[in-house]
Structures are given as C-alpha cells and as structure tokens.
Amino acid sequence: DLYYPLLMLMVAGILGIAMATDLLVLFVFFELMAIPSYALVAFRKDQREAVEAGLKYIVMSAVGSVIALFGISLIYMEAGTLSYSGLVGMLAGGAMSKAAVLMLVLGFGFKAALVPLHMWLPDALSAAPSGVSAMLSGIVIQGGFFALMKALLVFAGTGVSYGGLLIVMALITMTVGNLMAYVQSAYQKADLKRILAYSGVAQMGYIVLGIGLGLEYGVRSSFEGG
Predict the structure, then answer these.
(1) pLDDT tens for residues 130-189?
(2) Phi and psi angles of residue 22, each rounded to the nearest 5 degrees, phi first
(3) Crossing angle of helices 95-111/163-183, nearest 10°?
(4) Cβ neighbours, 10 Å, residue 124
(5) Cβ–Cβ contacts within 10 Å for residue 27, how many?
(6) Rounded distance between C-alpha atoms, residue 204 and residue 116, angstroms
(7) Neighbours of 116 (CB within 10 A)
(8) What is the C-alpha to C-alpha distance for residues 226 and 114, in angstroms, rounded to an integer?
(9) C-alpha gyration radius of the chain
(10) Torsion, CA 102, CA 108, CA 114, CA 117, rounded to 10
(11) Euclidean distance between CA atoms 91 and 97, whole angstroms
(12) Are 141 and 113 within 8 A, CB to CB?
C-alpha cells in the first residue's frame, strides 16, 4: 500500500520547509512536499474525477514551481549564493530583486492557493480521499505559504516592498474564497468538500492580509494576527 509512504514523504517535505536555511534546499523540500501530494490527489485512479483533478493539480503546481525556480535563479545571479546567512546585505534591491519577488509570489502562491492561483484546490479536495483533503486544506497550502515567506525574508532591508502586493492579493483571496464558498451546494459530500476548499482559500487570505499589513506598515499585531 503506497498511501502511507506517500503521506510520510509529504510530511517530511513540510518539515524540511520549516528547517531549510538555504533557498535551494527550501525548493527541494517544497517539491518533496508537492510530488507525493500529486499522487495522493489521484490515489483513486479508477475514478475519472480523481485523475482529472490530479492532472490539473500537477500541471498548475509544476508551472508554479518553474516560476519560483526562476525567481531563485535571479537571486543567485545577483548574490552568488542562496544561503540565508550569505544573502545578508548581498541584494541591491534593484529591478532584478523586484522581478525575483514577483516570481516567488507567483510561484509559491500556486501552492498557497492565493487567488487567482487557487483553481486546482477545489477539484483536488473534492476528488482526494478525505484524509488527504484534510492535509491539503490544513497543512499543504500553509506549507506553500511558509515557503513563500521564508523565500521573501531574504529581501529584508533591501528596500524592496512587497507588503502592498500581498495586501491586494489577500483582499482578492478573501473576497473570492468567501463568495465561492457561499454559492456552493452542500447536498453531496463532494460539494461539501468544495465549500471547505473555498473556505480554506479565504482563510489564507486572512493570514496573508495580516502579514502584508505588518510588512507594509510595520504593525506588530498584524504579524501576530497573521
């Protein structure tokens, strides 16, 4: 049975994201979290909906991973290192840094299910086994958010402001997530999962809004709330 080994690999990737002290290591563990989750979404491979959801998930997530990797490569091009300790004071905050920030937000934003990068999540949660759905909505999208925050931390003190971008994305995410949850039907199990999926999208909006306000305006309570 591959279910539990895949689940443990996904958890190992999430733990690795938390412990990574290098952007390349962070990306590797991010992928270690992502790849088993593709298989788990499509675990019921005899069901058409599961295969379709898994395919949509892997395509969109792979696009996000490529974009994030390009962002990391721009950081390496500018600083010559990817370790957090080595990056201190090495980024000038110019056009290349701004492009890297945008790519990191877009790339890791796919996994964090930020609108408009969230479209894989409702289908994935509906088609996956219930245990996997709980991990996706409660752990995996937060893992994508932590990867995003850890990647953006290297720009602290460079003058590159990305709090405003996060605020805008958070407001859109909150609004779309709640409205889409409201219009779903809860009469079937799959539909109930879609309600929970869109609710999870809205919750990510709340979290990102707190972090964005803290970054943009230096409000400590916003960080704590987020």
Answers:
(1) 888 888 888 888 888 999 988 888 887 777 788 888 999 999 999 999 988 888 765 555
(2) -145, 140
(3) 20
(4) 30
(5) 22
(6) 13
(7) 10
(8) 15
(9) 17
(10) 80
(11) 7
(12) yes
Three-class SS state of 139: helix
Query: In the chain, which residue ranges form alpha helices assigned H by DSSP?
Result: 3-19, 23-41, 48-79, 84-87, 95-111, 120-127, 130-135, 141-152, 163-183, 189-217, 220-225
- d(CA 110, CA 121) in angstroms, rounded, equals 9
Q: Angle CA(111)–CA(104)–CA(138) in degrees, nearest 5?
A: 25
β-bridge mates for residue 83, sequence order: 22
CA distance 17 to 26: 5
Tokens 């591959």 correspond to what residue? 2
Task: At 103, list the tokens.
Answer: 């790519």
Tell whether the model's pLDDT for residue 54 goes beyond 70: yes
Q: Are 173 and 190 in contact (CB under 8 A)?
A: no
115: left (phi over 0), alpha (psi -120 to 50) or beta: beta
Q: Sign of the CA dihedral 21, 8, 37, 199?
A: negative
Read off the tokens for 146: 């932590």
Spatial distance between the Cα atoms of 42 and 142, rounded to a whole number of angstroms: 21
